[in-house]
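Entry: Selenocysteine insertion sequence-binding protein 2-like
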Amino acid sequence: MPSDASLSPASQNSPYSITPVSQGSPASSGIGSPMASSTITKIHSRRFREYCNQVLNKEIDESVTLLLQELVRFQERVYQKEPTKAKSKRRLVMGLREVTKHMKLSKIRCVIISPNCEKIQAKGGLDEALYNVIAMAREQEIPFVFALGRKALGRCVNKLVPVSVVGIFNYSGAEALFNRLVSLTEEARRAYKEMVCALEQEQAEEALKNVKKVPHHMGHSRNPSAASAISFCSVISEPISEVNEKEY
């Protein structure tokens, strides 16, 4: 069992692992409204990046750790018995570039991604590469899991350096561990979706309260209902965090 220190940053007594949150991160796409963007910004942080669309928890971290350690053990056993065939019988591949290359060849069966990768939004940067991996995983309908910090992920595959992404070629012999991980991830993704929906509803209700407080004359109409409609439109057309803020 991994210690708390080796678990993903957000799963160490974090609200993300306790309070369920949607599949509404930029990684899942489809959410472009200001209200949704505000919700995503509120949920995520440097240690739980926006590309993640599942909650993080110790069970998933432990499940990933056990699976990767088992696959590394299988891989090393093959290397000791048949060194010449070891490369062709690899179980894992590490690093964004290598994982991307093998995903393009449709050889990857599962992807493990650290939730705290460095933020590099420039064209061709790390963020773009991560979103490409996630998009390919969706397109190929293979599981992708967010778990462990980069250093912990590196240790799982016997690397002394941080690792952002691990691709699994073959999980034969560890099906039970793999299936458990997939099940836990599905639950975590549902919990994330529920959390985002709850926060969006909370923000919408707060926005509605703010609308009701706006004087009718601010709607530039003597018709109360028209004023309310205009005011409400102005509220939902911008992030909730900007509503009723003073201008300086």
